[in-house]
């Protein structure tokens, strides 16, 4: 078994080994009401709140100094102030073979360091960790992605959508189609990047009644990335990709980040636009599962 968290990795032939990591224990919040004047209870809605991961690591080095260095690396990562004081969730990655990786999101909560003694003097010690998974979905780290390029061709003239008053007529390209594969059993949040040169691009999945698009023009180096998982919409440029500006106001009115998910199996998508010269849309997901893989 292998794990990765905040810069350290355990598993394989390194100084850190995973010696015990059972399946996480789910915490379910139940709702029950006593039957008035009789035996039993009435069941209400039950909710998954968190899953608790208990992980045991083995430090296996040649000396006390090397062992303590490894211990400090794990402890500093687990109790990192940026993690503890932040409001977001942190990823914990795991793998059964070191090749196929999965990810869950939550927070580290407990750390049990090794006791002082002969074993630690020899560079051998156990570390007990506990992680609370606060987002119930499991994600594959093997990304599924596709790109659909605009094409020069016939456009259809009609009313622009969504309909708003006063009504405006305009051109909309014929659809360019692509597909995306979600190997999991849950809908997976989608990341969409529109790139120029293109005007008024929109992406549709009529199977699940999903539409997402942006207003205005995209120049050759313009990119707008829509991330359903993090619920963000950013504009950036290829000449300076590290500078990202939030632009949620550029989403067309029918766009909903809460529905921008790819259903299990294959989903079909259509790209349309009012004009384009080399524009494109890139779609990517991480397959989503309801249980540990």
pLDDT average, as an integer?
A: 89
- Whole-number count of domains: 2
Main pleated sheet: 13 strands, antiparallel
**Through-space gap between termini:** 12 Å
- Helix- and strand-based class? mainly beta
- Which class of the largest domain in CATH terms? Mainly Beta
- For the record, the CATH architecture of the largest domain stands as Beta Barrel
Helix segment count? 3
Q: What layout of secondary structure does this protein have?
A:
Elements: E1 2-5, E2 8-10, E3 16-20, E4 25-29, E5 32-34, E6 41-43, E7 47-60, H1 64-78, H2 81-84, E8 90-95, E9 101-112, H3 118-121, E10 124-149, E11 155-159, E12 169-173, E13 176-182, E14 188-189, E15 191-195, E16 198-199, E17 202-205, E18 210-213, E19 217-218, E20 222-227, E21 232-237, E22 240-246, E23 261-262, E24 265-272, E25 275-276, E26 280-289
Antiparallel strand pairs: 1-2, 1-8, 3-7, 4-7, 5-6, 7-10, 8-9, 9-10, 10-26, 11-12, 13-24, 14-23, 15-20, 15-26, 16-19, 16-25, 17-18, 17-24, 20-21, 21-22
List keywords for this structure.
293 residues, mainly beta, Elongation Factor Tu (Ef-tu), domain 3, Jelly Rolls, 2 domains, 13-stranded antiparallel beta sheet, 4-stranded antiparallel beta sheet, 3 helices, 26 strands, 54% strand
Overview of this protein structure:
The protein is mainly beta. The protein folds into two domains: 2-141, Elongation Factor Tu (Ef-tu), domain 3; 150-289, Jelly Rolls. It contains three helices and 26 strands.
């Amino acid at each position: 078994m292998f794990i990765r968290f905040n810069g350290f990795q355990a598993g394989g032939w390194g100084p850190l080994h995973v010696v015990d990591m059972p399946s996480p224990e789910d915490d379910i919040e139940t709702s029950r009401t006593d039957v008035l004047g009789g035996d039993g209870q009435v069941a209400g809605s039950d909710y998954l709140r968190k899953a608790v991961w208990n992980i045991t690591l083995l430090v296996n080095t040649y000396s006390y100094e090397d062992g303590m260095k490894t211990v400090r690396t794990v402890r500093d990562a687990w109790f990192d102030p940026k993690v503890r004081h932040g409001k977001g969730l942190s990823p914990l990655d795991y793998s059964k073979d070191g090749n196929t990786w999965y990810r869950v999101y939550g927070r580290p909560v407990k750390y049990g360091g090794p006791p002082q003694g002969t074993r630690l003097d020899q560079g051998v010690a156990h570390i007990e960790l506990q992680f609370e998974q606060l987002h119930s979905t499991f994600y594959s780290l093997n990304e599924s992605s596709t790109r659909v390029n605009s094409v020069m061709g016939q456009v259809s003239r009609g009313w622009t959508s969504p309909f708003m008053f006063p009504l405006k007529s305009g051109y909309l390209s014929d659809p360019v189609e692509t597909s995306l594969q979600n190997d999991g059993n849950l809908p997976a949040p989608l990341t969409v990047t529109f790139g120029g040169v293109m005007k008024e691009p929109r992406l549709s999945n009529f199977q699940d009644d999903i539409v997402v698009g942006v207003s205005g023009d995209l120049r050759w180096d313009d990119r707008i990335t829509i991330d359903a998982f993090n619920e963000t919409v950013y504009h950036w440029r290829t000449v300076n990709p590290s500078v990202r500006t939030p632009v949620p106001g550029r989403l067309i009115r029918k766009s909903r980040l809460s529905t921008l998910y790819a259903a299990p199996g294959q989903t079909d998508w259509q790209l349309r636009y009012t004009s384009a010269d080399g524009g494109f849309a890139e779609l990517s997901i991480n397959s989503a599962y309801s249980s540990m893989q």
